[in-house]
Amino acid sequence: MRYPLIQLVLSFQFIIFAFGCKGLKEQTATLSEAEALEAFPGQIFLQGVDPGVANLFRGKTQPIAEWEPLSTVIISGSVLDFRFGYELLQKLLLTGLRGIIFVGVNNPELLKKFKQLVGPPGTTQFIGISTQAIIDHPSLWQKQHTVWSRDYGPIMARGTDGSPRMFNFKYARGDRELDDQFNTALLESIKTKAPTLPVGMKFEGGNFMTDGETCIYSDVVLQHGYNLKDVDGIFRNYMGCKKIITMPAVAHEGTGHVDMVMKFVRKNEVVLAQLFRNPNPTPEEHALNLDVKKSLDRIHTSLVKAGIKVTRIPMPAVRIIDYTPVFFSYTNSLISNGHIIMPVYGKDIDGDKAKQAIDIYKSFNYTVQTLDSKEIIVLGGAVHCSTMQIPAYQKAWHDQFYDELRRRRLL
């Protein structure tokens, strides 16, 4: 998910796009093309997609809020390179999941080892899916998945009939080919696949938040040269977002992703980071935190103007570690079946701020579990970044899903 370099601060101003016309010689063809794009902005990202598949999504899909019932969580086997990963598994097993999918794992003995290390999983099933083995291309053999399954995993939605839908975006990090192939490997692993829309747009799951109607992402996606109208068109016309808010990326935050500073906790209501002062900052940290605070306050104003109710949740001051700003986010958490798994960073960083954040989440009737994330946050993410959810669809679909995995000995 994460980028090691400090991202340039993007303008807070919203971008206005104007459309022109071509010459009269091509008037008929040009008008026809323009009318099609005007009717369904975003089609530029669907070149080569079967029209029947696109029509299955267009106007017939709904986004799914994170707090809705959850069946399965996708995590990378690489997360188990960290102590954080095993503790994350232990926390997930307490939230009533049906299964956990391990990306890049195809060794049954390793799955048994996971179970032994984290304790009895109860009814939760452990699943390993190896992208390298399924895609089986020489360019992938020696590569390893990153921990950021949120960013390269599928974004799940539902059809208006309640059936599953899957969006497969291009992973924005072009140097992570193996990660970008995971969704294809997931589909190849099962026959009971959800209808899938391959979107030729670079986009990462950590930059997407929804309450089931309103969808929020930051303008970092426009760094790829995209037209805002086309980006909005994918989410409005094909995912079914009723309202779209494009917020400015936060100053000095290296990913530009919304999950580092905010989270939907109920319909039309978010928690947004409130930066607290470091009592002993370096001069560089002091100036940096002033920028971050101004950036967050501007986002607060824009969300309120858009009709979103905002509760500020504390965030410890940003620190510079190995020349990189580190955001100690409490919003980079995961909601799973009424539980929130919230990252914490140790008394020297959290102070009393973690307790305040826990109380805020509890005020929204969540059961809060904390997870020490100090070793992984320096890479640019925590709990939310390293997990991707598959919601609970109809029981029959999930039965078929797990039966197919079992038949193929992936379970």
Describe it:
- The chain has 411 residues and is α/β, with parallel strands linked by helices.
- It contains 14 helices and 19 strands.
- Helix content is 31%, strand content 23%.
- The strands form six sheets. A four-stranded mixed β-sheet has the order 1-5-6-7. A four-stranded mixed β-sheet has the order 4-3-2-19, with helices on both faces. A three-stranded mixed β-sheet has the order 8-9-10, with helices on both faces.
- The longest helix has 23 residues.
State the distance separating the first and last CA atoms. Answer: 27 Å
- Based on Cα principal axes, name the global outline: globular
Gyration radius, rounded:
21 Å
Percent of residues in helical segments? 25-40%
Structural class, by secondary structure, is alpha/beta
Largest sheet: spatial strand order: 1-5-6-7
Largest sheet: 4 strands, mixed
Please state roughly what percent of the residues sit in beta strands, choosing from under 5%, 5-15%, 15-25%, 25-35%, 35-45% or over 45%.
15-25%
Q: Quick one: how many beta strands?
A: 19
Query: pLDDT under 50 segments (min length 5)?
Result: 3-38
Average pLDDT number? 86
Q: What count of helical segments does DSSP give?
A: 14
Question: What key attributes describe this structure?
Answer:
411 residues; four-stranded mixed beta sheet
